[in-house]
Design brief:
Enolase; three-stranded antiparallel sheet; about 475 residues; 16 strands
Length: about 475
C-alpha cells in the first residue's frame, strides 16, 4: 500500500488539515502539542485492556483494584468493603482460604476480572456506562452478583466511569451528572464522625457514631474547617476528662473514649462545639446501628460491657422514648438505623413522628426492592447509599433516583474498610445527593473524599452551591 493509499484509507489528510486549522484558530504557541492533542480527541476511544490486582483496605484486609486502559490512558479504581456484609446486599466474593489473609483474600474476584470480565468488555466504548455494567451483570447471571463478585464488578464499573469522563473530556462528577440527568454544581453537607462506638471501636458505647453536620457553612471548604476544628477541640475535651488514652480512634477515625451512654458522648460533642463558637452552625447526626445489639425484640445497650448487669435491655417503645428525649435535648437532626433491620413497624412509627431524618442503612442495604418497600410503607425518609452494596455505578444511579423520586434524602456513604479512592466525592456531586458520610476529618482514606470535594468546589467556581440548610432536599 502506498503512502497516498494509506492516507486515503484512513482519511488522514482531512483529519490533519482539520487539526492544523484548529491550531491556527486557537493561535496556540505550541502547534505540535495542540495538533497532537486534537488528533487524540478525534479518535473514538475503546477499552483496550483491563488488569486487576489485590490490595489492602484501611483495615489491612484485601480488596480489589482495577486498571482499565483506553487510548486516552489508564484509569484506576478500588472498592471498599464493610464488616459484616448483610444478607440483602450484593455479594463480596472472598476466597475463603483460612491459610491466606484469614480467608479474606480476593484472588478469585481478581481472576474473574482478568479472565472473564476483561474478555466481555474490551472493545466497548467507555462512555456507555449502562452497557458496560449490563454486560457484567449478564455475564454474572445471579441476582446478587455472587458468581463474579460485586467487588469485581464495581471496581471495573468505577474505572470505566473514569474512562468515560476522560473520553468526553469532562470532570468525573460532570460525567456522572450527565449519566443521571441531574445537575453537577451542588456540594454536599459532610457528616463528620466525631465519636466512634458500636462494632467500629473498642469502647463500651453501644451506638456506632456521633457525627456533626456543618449546615451553617457558606462553602464546603468552610464546612471542612468547622469539622476539623470541632474534631480537635473534642480531642482536647476528651484528653482533659479521660487522659490521652481516651483519644484512640475507631475504624472511621472517630475518637473512641471509654464511655457507655448516649448522653455522655453527646455532652462531649456539645462541649467541643461550644469551644468552636459554631453553636448555631452545627447540627448532630447519630448512627445507632441497632441491629448490632438487637436480641429478639429487645435492645441490649450494654452489649459491649464486660460488667453488664443484664438490666439495660430496652423495648422498641423504650428506644423511641430515648430518641424523642435526645432530639429534644440536643440538636439532633438525623438518626440512622434506630431499630433492627427487620423491625419495620417501629421504624415506620418513629418516622411518622417527623422528629428528624430517619436514615435506612441495615434496613435497606441499598437494595432496590427494600428501598421500594420502605418508600411505599413510609418506613424511613432517607437512603444511606453504600455503592458496593449495589455493585455498579448504573445501579447506584438508579437507586438514588428511586429515593429522590420518593422525596427522600440521600447520604452517600463510606465503608469501614476504605481505600484512598475518592470516587464517592464525585458521585455525591454528580448525583446532587446533598449529604456525604466519609468518616472523621482525619485518616487518609477518609480525607481522600473530603479533599476531593474541596477541589471540585474550587473547579466549579462561582457556580458551586453548598447545600447548607437545604441538606435534606438538595
Amino acid at each position: 500500500m502506498s503512502v497516498q493509499d494509506y492516507l486515503d484509507k484512513h482519511t488522514l489528510s482531512r483529519k490533519i488539515e482539520d487539526a492544523v486549522n484548529a491550531a491556527v484558530r486557537a493561535k496556540t504557541p505550541d502547534p505540535v502539542l495542540f495538533i497532537s492533542n486534537h488528533m487524540r480527541k478525534a479518535v473514538p476511544s475503546v477499552i483496550t485492556k483491563v488488569k486487576a490486582r489485590q490490595i489492602l483496605d484501611s483495615r489491612g484486609i484485601p480488596t480489589v483494584e482495577v486498571d482499565l486502559y483506553t487510548n486516552k490512558g489508564m484509569f484506576r479504581a478500588s472498592v471498599p468493603s464493610g464488616a459484616p456484609t448483610g444478607m440483602y446486599e450484593a455479594i463480596e466474593l472472598r476466597d475463603g482460604d483460612k491459610s491466606t489473609y484469614l480467608g479474606n483474600g480476593v484472588s478469585k474476584a481478581v481472576k474473574n476480572i482478568n479472565e472473564k470480565i476483561s474478555e466481555a468488555i474490551v472493545g466497548m466504548d467507555p462512555i456507555l456506562q449502562n452497557q458496560i455494567d449490563q454486560a457484567m451483570i449478564d455475564l454474572d447471571k445471579t441476582e446478587k452478583k455472587g458468581e463474579l463478585g460485586a467487588n469485581a464488578i464495581l471496581a471495573v464499573s468505577i474505572a470505566a466511569c473514569r474512562a468515560g469522563a476522560a473520553e468526553k473530556d469532562v470532570p468525573l462528577y460532570k460525567h456522572i451528572a450527565e449519566l443521571s440527568g441531574r445537575g453537577s454544581n451542588v456540594l454536599p453537607v459532610p457528616a463528620f464522625t466525631l465519636i466512634s462506638g458500636g462494632k467500629h471501636a473498642g469502647n463500651n458505647l453501644a451506638i456506632r457514631e456521633i457525627m456533626i453536620l456543618p449546615v451553617g457553612a457558606q462553602r464546603f471548604e468552610e464546612a471542612m474547617q468547622m469539622g476539623s476544628e470541632t474534631y480537635h477541640h473534642l480531642k482536647a475535651v476528651i484528653a482533659e476528662k479521660y487522659g490521652a488514652h481516651g483519644c484512640n480512634v475507631g475504624e472511621d477515625g472517630g475518637l473512641a473514649p471509654d464511655i457507655t451512654s448516649f448522653r455522655e458522648g453527646l455532652d462531649l460533642v456539645m462541649e467541643a462545639i461550644g469551644r468552636t463558637g459554631y453553636i448555631d452552625k452545627l447540627k448532630i447526626a447519630v448512627d445507632i446501628a441497632a441491629t448490632d445489639f438487637c436480641i429478639g425484640s429487645k435492645y441490649d445497650l450494654d452489649f459491649k460491657s464486660p460488667r453488664k448487669s443484664g438490666q439495660n435491655f430496652k423495648s422498641g417503645e423504650d428506644m423511641i422514648e430515648i430518641y424523642k428525649e435526645l432530639c429534644r435535648d440536643y440538636p439532633i437532626v438525623s438518626i440512622e438505623d434506630p431499630f433492627d433491620k427487620e423491625d419495620w413497624e417501629q421504624v415506620k412509627y418513629f418516622s411518622g413522628l417527623g422528629i428528624c431524618q430517619v436514615v435506612g442503612d441495615d434496613l435497606l442495604m441499598s437494595n432496590p426492592k427494600r428501598v421500594e418497600r420502605a418508600i411505599q410503607e413510609h418506613a424511613c425518609n432517607a437512603l444511606l447509599l453504600k455503592v458496593n452494596q449495589v455493585g455498579s455505578v448504573t445501579e447506584a444511579i438508579e437507586v438514588v433516583k428511586m429515593a429522590k423520586d420518593g422525596n427522600w434524602g440521600v447520604v452517600i456513604s463510606q465503608r469501614s474498610g476504605e481505600t484512598d479512592d475518592s470516587f464517592l466525592a464525585d458521585l455525591s456531586v454528580g448525583l446532587g445527593t446533598g449529604q456525604i458520610k466519609a468518616g472523621a476529618p482525619c485518616r487518609g482514606e477518609r480525607l481522600a473524599k473530603y479533599n476531593q470535594l474541596i477541589r471540585i468546589e474550587e473547579e466549579i467556581g462561582d457556580q458551586a452551591r453548598y447545600v447548607g440548610d437545604d441538606w435534606r432536599h438538595s
